[in-house]
Amino acid sequence: MANGIIISAQRNIDQAGDISASLNILEQAREAGLKQASLSIDPLSTDWNSPLEEGHFRSGCGPIEALAVANRMISQSEADVVAIRGRDYLKSEYSREERHQLMTIYEDDISIPEAYTQLTRHFCRLQGLSEQEFINLRDQIFQNLSRTAEQQGISLPDQRWFTPLTDLFRGVDCANPGIDFDGILIVAHPDIVNSLETSMPPVKVCGTGIGIADQDGPHYTQTLAEYHALEKALHYASIQSGIDLCQSIRSPEVLLDAYTCYPVVPLALLIISGAATTPEAISEFLATRPLTQTGGMNLARAPWNNPALNGLIAMCEALQQAPGQTGIVHGNGGLGYKQGLAVLSSNV
Question: How far apart are CA 8 and CA 64, in angstroms?
Fold first, then answer.
């Protein structure tokens, strides 16, 4: 069974960037008579609770799920080329009021920051973290993201974003959706890669892992805080890729793009994977390793269901500068009921 090869990864953010080379590859594939498939990441305008259409994906784990499906289709010869695309112009096509209304996805009008505060309290209790220890780690996560953001030329937020929104989170700790995003990833069968004029060195999909909990929402935060879905995703990604995810996440030689909608999510990735399990080990990790390739979902913005697609594209860009290296991209859906990991490599 052949693993898929990513042959194009492009994005347009706030009208900066170009995806035309990817569209040209799809036209080449059509003219060559190759079997094509298209997978779509739903925009914010799609009702969160509506049935999923075939070939559509929703939640912050959606792009990793789409990559898993694309890799399966390639490996089973159902398609020669699969395009994964997500477009959501959150800044220019929605008013602030519309965004707020559409992002109120849980019953009783509980906001996502409030729901994540509940989840975090349960997680800290399970992990034996005091509130002050969590706050210390929260601040270190922001510092970690800030270093990457500055390297990417992203301006840091002004002082008003440091105002508390909940007992545990400030504005700088929460995903900021104010972005126009259009991204595309093209996955191909290795046998046809050389027959297409591609715009980037190929990146191999070594494996993916998806874990799904039975329920999502504020009423289930106590169970979700156990992160069993993440355990499953780590297990399946390790089996598919043939690498130890704990050792890989811990290794300074492996690139990482953790999901950073709220600080508890990357903390869970480090702890549940076993890469760093004590406050001291987590602090050392955060001081020496970038959590993301982008600067995170506040500083680099969060295009609703597309942050992991943005992360996959950013990882492909990073791997082009790092021959023979491995990258791990994390996706988190809802309050953590869906978890996904993709293992990529520039060693094709």
Answer: 16
Burial class of residue 288 in the structure, from the number of CB atoms within 10 Å of its CB (0-12 exposed, 13-18 middle, 19+ buried)? exposed
Please answer whether residues 144 and 266 qualify as being in contact, where contact means their C-beta atoms are separated by less than 8 angstroms: no
The DSSP secondary structure of 263-275, one letter per residue, reads THHHHHHHHHHTS
Average pLDDT, 10 consecutive residues per value, the chain (348 residues): 91 96 97 97 96 97 98 96 98 94 86 96 98 98 98 93 96 95 98 91 97 96 98 98 96 97 98 98 98 96 97 97 94 98 95
pLDDT tens-digit readout, 303-312: 999 999 999 9
Torsion of CA 296, 302, 303, 309, to 10 degrees: 20
Distance between CA atoms of residues 181 and 13, nearest Å: 5
| pTM listed for this prediction | 0.97
For the chain, percent of residues with pLDDT exceeding 70:
100
Q: Is the dihedral of CA 137, 148, 111, 53 positive or negative?
A: negative
d(CA 88, CA 63): 13
Residue type, 233: A
CA distance 245 to 26: 33
Distance, CA of 91 to chain centre: 20
Least Cα distance to 17 among 25, 9, 27, 5 occurs for: 9
First to last CA, the chain: 15
**Domains along the sequence of the chain with CATH:** 5-92+175-345 (3.40.47.10)
What is the distance between the alpha carbons of residues 275 and 341, in angstroms, rounded to a whole number?
A: 15
Contact of 345 with 204, CB cutoff 8 Å: yes
Which residues, other chains included, contact 274 with Cβ-Cβ below 8 Å and sequence gap of 6+? 246
